[in-house]
Amino acid sequence: MSTGVFDAYELPDGVRCLQMLNSVNVCEGFSVRYPSLDDSDKDVLVKLLIEGNAAIKNMPVSEIIQAIGKVAKRFMDKDDPLRHEALEIMVPTAGVSSEMAETILAGMSADWTGEKLTELLEREFASPAILDCFQRIDSGRSQMAYGFTFNLTVGSGTVPGVGVTALIRALLLKSSILLKPGLGDVALPVLFARALREESEVFRKCLAVAYWDGDKERIGDKILDKAGVVVVYGSQETIRSIRNQIPKTTDLVAYGQRLGVGLVGREALSEMEALQTAQKVAMSISTFDQKGCVSPQVLYVEQGGEVAPVDWVKVLASAMDELEKQLPSGALSQQEVIGVQQLRAAIELKQLAGTGVLLYKGTHKSWTVIFDPELSLKWSDCKRAVYVKPIADLMIAKTLLVDSENCLQTVAIVGAVSRKENIAASLTQVGVTRVTSFRQAPWPKPWWHHDGRSVFQGLFKLIDVEDIID
User: Fold this and answer.
1) pLDDT by residue (tens digit) across 161-185?
2) What is the mean pLDDT of residues 113-134?
3) What is the reported pTM?
4) Do the beta carbons of residue 258 and residue 431 sit within 8 Å?
5) Whose CA, among 96, 261, 412, 415, lies 20 to 30 Å from 435?
6) Regarding the domain delimited by 259-436, which CATH topology (the fold level of the hierarchy) does it fall under?
């Protein structure tokens, strides 16, 4: 879509006709509109969501799953107009190529199906029915799980689809939710909410999605004071700001920025496997244009294989270039262009100084691969930019990551099959919570332990009814 306007909100029935709309240009010829909500509007919005919670509380969880699953199938159906609209709007709003939009939508929507959501609840609870009524769990008590009446979720917008996943988690727990997505993730949550409203009257009462510019407009006490739980995705600055605004009695679930790391074992660097390894790594780096918290930004490549790290980096550069033809990166903003220019200029100076640093780059600033023999941890905020560092033994990776313990999460690994668990155990000392393959790194399962905890942790409570013994 080269020109157009997208209304980035979907509000409950009963919210007055919005006369005041703000607008932001996300690219040349395309803008996003969003409501200007004053304190009175926010008060009404929250009141409606809280009142509407009774409807979803009375809805069997199986029916909630069924409705969500139907919408997910629409996003997967290549003939469905909803899918076409989503792909069309993702390109300008998320800043990705059409090919990347298809890849993201396919990967995300596969985890929103009824089958996957049923499995998620079965893994998290003894029975999904525990969300509907009391279930006998042992000889002394019955138990029921219930979500907060009102869930406020603030998204970061770096990866499209994350907002939908957060929205689904709240609805499965029968919470009313107000989702404020980031600008890069407005398309899928808004369209998903609109489609859900068509599936059941219940979702017309308990669900709201609305973007606004968080830098210019605070969430406001009218919303924060009523939330039972506040979920925040974003920078430490964003998390700290919202934590300071909410009442001390309100639960906060925060997902901060994370640094992705990749480990390449010598076993994956044989003459026969080096290219395939590079292709897997390139795909893992390039998915989401490397904007996800699961995206590898620095690689430690083990010495001692048939192909040395300094030679393998050329293979990786070739794989990145080939992938750019199949899965092009999105258009860069002016600020992003300047960032790439500065990064490459700095690396070129080091290369000329004979430090052993090598620079490989794609045309139009599409990707950047840096070979750096200095082992200290470095990374770049540029898209599709990765540091490659040679290492004698993957087991010493933990010593190089120790200063970044607070921002580590996912480590992708290839090769070293027989050593994987020992390496993973060592990485627990620096805060790593997920070790996986490069192929799986961009696509964690719905039931993964996000930052080491259940995806539902902090979003619900349990009530026990104990057997009364007089």
Assistant:
1) 999 999 999 999 999 999 999 999 9
2) 96
3) 0.95
4) no
5) 96
6) Aldehyde Dehydrogenase; Chain A, domain 2 (3.40.309)
